[in-house]
Amino acid sequence: MTRPPTAAQRRVIDGADPGTGRLRGTEAQLAALVKRGLAFRHPRPPHDHFLTPAGHRIREAPPDAEDPARPAEPPSSTGVFAARVGGEEDAATAGPARAREVHSAWEGLLELRRMTNPDADTGRPCGWERAHLVRAAALALEAAGHRAAGPEGDGYRVRATPQPEAIAVYGPDTGVLRACAATLEAAGWQAGEYTEPRTRARYLLASPRRV
C-alpha cells in the first residue's frame, strides 16, 4: 500500500514551478519527497530539487483522487513511471487515466534528461535510462502510442539481453518491429533488426545512443 502525501508535502508539490518542476521547501520536506520517489536532487550545484514523473502525476491529480488503498507500482530509484514492457495481464487495457500517466512520465523523463545530461540534451538517453534499459525503452514505446503485448502476445515485448546496454524488442510481425525501431531511434536509441538463429524469430536489438 502507499500513503498519499501529507498536507505539507502536497503544498510543496503544488508549489512546484509549472515549467521545470523545481521545488521550494524545507530540507526536511524535500528529503521526505526524495525518499518517497516524488522528487530528486540535482547532482550539480546549487543542488535544487525537482519533481519526478511520480511527483508530476500527484500535482496534476486532484487531492481527493489519491487513493491510499491503491497498490503502489514497483518502485524505482527515482520514482520514474513503470511503463508496460509486454506480457502484463492488463497490458491490453487503456484509457484516459493511463494516457495521462504515460504522458506525464514521458515529459518527466525528458526533464530528467535536460537536468542530468551534461549538455542538457533531451534527445539523448540519460543515466537513469542506461541503468533501467527495459523500462526506459518501454516508456518510449508506450508514450508514442505503441501497444504492449497482453497475455496473447499481440503487441510489443521489451526484454533484457546478455549484452551490455542493449535490450530486445519482439513483436507479432515486421511491421510492428519497424514502427518500434523508428520510435526508439526518434527517442535517442540505436535499433537494428535481427533473426534468432534457433527460432528464426525477428526482433530488434536496441541500445541508448551516447552522442
From TrEMBL:
It comes from the Bacteria. Residues 57-70 have a biased composition (Basic and acidic residues). Residues 1-24, 39-80 are annotated as: Disordered. This is Uncharacterized protein. It comes from Streptomyces anandii. The lineage of its organism: Bacteria, Bacillati, Actinomycetota, Actinomycetes, Kitasatosporales.
